[in-house]
Design a protein that fits this description.
alpha/beta, 454 residues, 14 helices, 6-stranded parallel sheet, binds (4S)-2,6-dioxohexahydropyrimidine-4-carboxylic acid, globular, 28% helix, TIM Barrel, single chain
Length: 454
C-alpha cells in the first residue's frame, strides 16, 4: 500500500487508549497518529465521522493458517485477509505448515511476495523448524519468529527429539513459539483407542496429559537456554501453573475455541470443533478465562485453520482438525464486554497490544501518538447473528454459526485508510504491508497493573 500523504481526522470517537477510554478526535498524517484530543474542526483531507462509536487498535492475530501456497482449496491469502479486514483484524502472523512448508528463508520470502500482491491487511510469516534446519532459521531475517510443532498437527512438521530441540533453543536467536502436545502421549492414547470413530475420543487422545508434558518440556528448554518463548493455544487449566510466574520472556496465548467450546459441544457441533490441541472441559474454559483476566495468559489468537465442510464431514478420525475464526474473533470478545465480563481496554490489550509486544512488531498495537493508525471502529450496540453463508473465508463456515453476538466491527483502517466498512464493503485498492519486527527488546514484559500495559 502506498503511503498516504494526506491528513485524516477521526472525529468524535470513544477512543480506546491503553489505560482509558476518551471521547475525542484523532488526527492521522502519513498513516501515523499525530494527535489525540485533536480539534474536531481541524482541517483534514478526509474526515471519518465516528459518532461516539468506539475506536480500537486493529487486532493483531499472531496465529493463523492461511494455506497458501499449496492448500488453496481451503483458504487463500486474498480471502483470509479480507476476512481479517471484515472482522477488525489489521495484521496477522501466519504459520509455516503450508505446502511446501515455510522452513527456509526463501520459502518465507515466497510467502511475503504472494502477500504483497494479495493481502488486504498487514502480514508476517513464521519460519518452521525441522530437526535439521538451524542454518535456515538463522537466515530468516524479518520474521516474527520460529514455529516448532513439538506435537504433530496438520502437515508434516514435527520436532520432538530432545537433541534437535536443544539445538534449536541453543543455536538460534529469534523468538520461538510452539504447538505443545506431546507426540508420545498422543500416539499411546491413539493406539489404546484405535479403531474408534467417536469424535469425542479426539479429546481423550489429545488429552490434558499430552498438553502438560509438552508445555513443561518447552518451558524447561526456554528457561535453560534463556530463550524468548511463546506458548501457543493453551488449552488446559493444568498448564496454567506451569506458565504462571515465569520470566517475562515467557508468554502465552489462548484461542476463542478453547474459551467458548468444551467437550459437551461435540454432540451439537461435531467435527466443526475438532481442533489440535483438542477442546477440553467446561472447567478448563473457566480457568483459561480467569488466566486472561489475571495476566497469566497475555494474548488472544485464533489459530484460524480452515478445512472445507466436505473434508470436515468425513467420519472421525479422517475428519481434519482445524476451524476458521478470524472474522468473528473481535466480535466474540466485544460480546464478552457487552456481558460485563471484561473491559474494552482488556480486549485491546489481549488482541492488539500484547501480540505487538510479544513479537516486537514496530509501531503497532495501540492508539498512541507516533503509532500507525491501524484502527477498527466498532458498534457496541449492534446485534448480529453469525451465519456460514455470510463468511468471507474461502471455506465459508464458522463454528459459531447461529450465534448472536452484541458488539461488531463496522469499519477497519490500515494506516488511516479504510480497507473495509459494513456499509461499503472492501476498498479494493487498499493492501497490507509486511510488518517490521524488532526483537532487540527481548519481547513482552510484565507490568504492575496486570493488563500488559507499560
Ligand atoms: O487443529 C489444528 N489445525 N491445529 C493447528 O495448530 C493447526 C491446524 C491446521 O493447520 O489445520
Amino acid at each position: 500500500m502506498s503511503q498516504p500523504s494526506t491528513k485524516t481526522l477521526f472525529r468524535n470517537a470513544s477512543v480506546v487508549l491503553p489505560n482509558e477510554i476518551r471521547e475525542c478526535s484523532l488526527l492521522v498524517e502519513n498513516g501515523k497518529i499525530i494527535e489525540i484530543d485533536a480539534n474536531p474542526l481541524s482541517s483534514a483531507d478526509c474526515v471519518v465521522e465516528c459518532d461516539e462509536k468506539h475506536l480500537l487498535p486493529g487486532v493483531i492475530d499472531d496465529q493463523v493458517h492461511f494455506r497458501e501456497p499449496g492448500l488453496t482449496h481451503k483458504e487463500e491469502l486474498y480471502t483470509a485477509s479480507r476476512a481479517c479486514a471484515a472482522g477488525g483484524t489489521t495484521a496477522f502472523l501466519e504459520m509455516p505448515n503450508t505446502k511446501p512448508p515455510a522452513v527456509t528463508a526463501d520459502g518465507v520470502k515466497a510467502k511475503d511476495a504472494i502477500a504483497a500482491q494479495k493481502s488486504h491487511v498487514h502480514y508476517g510469516f513464521y519460519i518452521g523448524a525441522t530437526p535439521d534446519n538451524v542454518d535456515e532459521l538463522n537466515q530468516a531475517g524479518n520474521v516474527p519468529g520460529i514455529k516448532i510443532f513439538i506435537g504433530s498437527s496438520t502437515g508434516n512438521l514435527l520436532v520432538d527429539e530432545q537433541e534437535a530441540l536443544e539445538r534449536i533453543f541453543a543455536e538460534t536467536t529469534l523468538p520461538i513459539c510452539a504447538h505443545c502436545e506431546d507426540e508420545t502421549t498422543v500416539r499411546e492414547n491413539a493406539a489404546r483407542l484405535s479403531g474408534t470413530s467417536d469424535l469425542r475420543d479426539h479429546s481423550r487422545i489429545r488429552d490434558e496429559k499430552a498438553a502438560v508434558i509438552a508445555t513443561t518440556r518447552a518451558i524447561d528448554l526456554a528457561n535453560r537456554h534463556q530463550h524468548r518463548f511463546h506458548v501457543l493455544h493453551v488449552s488446559t487449566a493444568a498448564e496454567l501453573p506451569i506458565i504462571a510466574n515465569q520470566s517475562p520472556y515467557i508468554t502465552a496465548e489462548v484461542c476463542p475455541h478453547h474459551l467458548f467450546f468444551n467437550v459437551d459441544d461435540y454432540d451439537r457441533l461435531g467435527s466443526r470443533i475438532q481442533m489440535n490441541p483438542s477442546i477440553k472441559s467446561k472447567a478448563d474454559n473457566r480457568a483459561l478465562w480467569n488466566a486472561l483476566l489475571d495476566n497469566t495468559i497475555q494474548a488472544i489468537a485464533t489459530d484460524h485453520a480452515p478445512h472445507t465442510l466436505e473434508e470436515k464431514s468425513q467420519p472421525y478420525p479422517q475428519s481434519p482438525s482445524g476451524l476458521p475464526a478470524v472474522e468473528n474473533s473481535l466480535a466474540l470478545f466485544l460480546n464478552q464486554v457487552s456481558l460485563g465480563l471484561c473491559t474494552l481496554n482488556q480486549v485491546a490489550s489481549w488482541m492488539s497490544d500484547a501480540p505487538a509486544r510479544i513479537w516486537g512488531i514496530v509501531g503497532k498495537g495501540r492508539i498512541e501518538i507516533g503509532y500507525d493508525a491501524d484502527l477498527v471502529l466498532v458498534n457496541l450496540e449492534e446485534k448480529r447473528t453469525i451465519l456460514d453463508e455470510n463468511q468471507h473465508t474461502k471455506s465459508r463456515w464458522s463454528p459459531w454459526h447461529g450465534e448472536t453476538l452484541t458488539g461488531w466491527p463496522i469499519a477497519t483502517f490500515l494506516k488511516g485508510q479504510q480497507v473495509w466498512s459494513q456499509s461499503t464493503g472492501f476498498s479494493q485498492d487498499r493492501f497490507g504491508e509486511k510488518l517490521l519486527f524488532d526483537h532487540s527488546r527481548g519481547g513482552y514484559w510484565a507490568t504492575p497493573n496486570g493488563i500488559g500495559i507499560e
